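User: structure tokens for this one?
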Amino acid sequence: MGKQWYFVALVTAAIAISYFDRQTLPVAISAIERTIPLSHQQFSWLQFAFLIPYALMYAGGGRLLDLLGTRRGFTLIMLWWSAACALQGLAMNFGFLLAGLCLLGMGEGGGFPAATRVVAEWIPLEKRSTAMGIINAGTAVGSVLAPPLIGVVLLVSGWRMVFFAAGATGLAWVVWWFASYRDGSGDNTAAPQSAPEFSLLELLGVRKVQVLVFAKFMSDSAWYFYLFWLPKYLYDVRGFDVKQVSYYAWIPYAASGAGSFLGGWLSSSLLNRGRSLDFSRKFVLGLSALLMPVVMLVPHVPVGWALALFSVAFFCQQSWSGLIMTLPADLFPLSTVGTVSGMVGFGGAIGGAIFGVVAGFMLSHGFGYGTLFFVVGSFHIIGFLAILLLGGKFQPYKMFLKASQA
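Assistant:
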């Protein structure tokens, strides 16, 4: 394994830990509720408490990484979120859980901007979507491992130990990262380092940035709903217990990992065969968005088919997500990659936070999960239409600069 792919594996492990940590609450919720009773609306506020600081740190963390460098910045980020995860194990009431998730979101928001910088520093353009697909598959690894491992810990030691063990795993990764990683030169970026610097306001004025932020806002409104509410849906509507969630809830997340890898592979394959960057990215994004409405059928089929439909949706979502988070490295110089990816992630997290509260309100006021699945099934289509109609042509920044000056 070359050095650059070793670093990709290292970051993939961090993203896996991140998604394991954020699944601790949803998977353990039935056990936690025996100690700390929670309504649908309170559960939605816990999601909100995680995602708002997550969104702010996604944007601010990208800027922080651009200033501190990837190695030091990611070390600080991981230390923070691991300590915050462990802190939740001490919770005695709803307010403590709310504060713990707020701190966790502040830390985890820097994860994907750091991953995007690693890709920009070490991976050439034609292999970036594959690298980002592998990293994005880490979300599936963490999410697949969460239901069975958390289930075992719940049955053996109780829910508090879940948070302590997750936090300790993150701290161990920090040692591995700091001992192994070295910041790259950025020689593999599409744009030369002499490209002009952009301020935050200038980047906000770039149409492609605006479109990517909106597309991520729409798609992650759906994705965070699935992440936070799937285990609760299985508990509340399908009558699952902890053992059944441990046995079956990992299946859609495994599909998401396959989607992360295969979506990136297909886009890279098209690029290697001579297709343009614009076609290679948009073709796979469109194919992924096209299949997302299958989740609308979930309330109308037996549980086995429901898990299959969730698996299709999770596969397509992560195929989509990996490519969306590759685009900042495709289109912009290294000096702004962390900032742009942070802004895109900010949009996604804000979408998830807002729709999470909407979901909690609707479930508390007589609406069922069927209505929610119908709504979220349309979000990726809307995001892709924005890319197609408003995003212009995807091309490396140095080409875009020449076109804009013509």
